[in-house]
Predict the structure.
Amino acid sequence: MGNGLSYWKCNTCGTTATYQGLCRDCTTYDSERNIIEPTSRIRINKDGTQHVKNTQRPIMPFGERDGFRKQKKLTKKQTKAMEEHISKFRPTKDGEVALLGESDDEEE
Ligand SMILES: [Zn+2]
């Protein structure tokens, strides 16, 4: 936390804010202020482009359109495919890719 301001944008109406949360204009409430249909802001960079979480991952050309939202946990098969994909861009010294942690394929 705390390296400058974060910016958040509602993709529906395009307004930005410096805090996360639901867009008041686009979130639907009922008469008792219960949320019916929440509209969350997404994090953006200062220049207005969508912010991508800054992990150790190198740039991943595939799945950048809508992959990030759905990508919660990869299956082992997907992980392996991704490692192979990444290794084409950033091979390590001994040819192993260790970005995604130790393989635990053996432990079942
Ligand atoms: Zn909005």
